[in-house]
Every structure is written in structure tokens, then in C-alpha cells.
Task: structure prediction
Amino acid sequence: MDGTLVTADFVDVAALEEIPRRGARTVATASGAIALFRTGRDDVFALRDRCPHRGGPLSHGIVHGEHVTCPLHGWVIDLASGAAEGERAPCVARFRVRVEQGRVLLAVNGP
Ligand code: FES
Result:
């Protein structure tokens, strides 16, 4: 994560343990649902919970490595970049997220 980030940008949204390993949970925001993904290595990523193909809920997908496979038609999304595998565009909006002392902090104001 970016060490220059200001803590005040972040909101405490969950405990790390509330996100299943190799799974996800969602956070409701004024601009729509954000999916928090937890990898098998306990890294956490935050993406808009909407597949760029036809809007499927990425939070219901299968997390593998640092990717999630959409549950509807199988597009594979890179959790770090938000890019869809094999596609130049569009990408899924990313949000800054970090874990401190077992709490997940999300920058809900945007990527
Ligand atoms: S909606 Fe995600 S692959 Fe189609």
C-alpha cells in the first residue's frame, strides 16, 4: 500500500476476520457496493462490486490468487489492478484499502 496515504482518508469498515479467506464481503456506500476481497495470504483488495461485463456481483465470485472469477460468465478480474483478463477495457473501479491491527480501513472517497 502507499505509505504516503493520510489516515484520515480511511474509514474502519470491518475486522479482517469478518472477510472469509479466499472470499469477500461487501460494504454499502452512497455510491454503491464495494467488495472487500481477502486472499489466501491475507492481502485485502477493494473493488466496485460490479463486473464490467454485465454487472455481476464480483463479491460472489471465486477468489484465486490475486484474482476473482465472476460468478455469472466467468470473467477473471485482477484484484490489484481491476483489469479484466484478456480485455483492454473496461476496468473495475479500485479503492485504497489497508489492514492495521486486524482492522480493514477503506478509502471510500475513491481510488
Ligand atoms: S457479468 Fe461478470 S462475466 Fe458476465
User: Anything to note?
Assistant: The two ends are 12 Å apart (CA to CA).
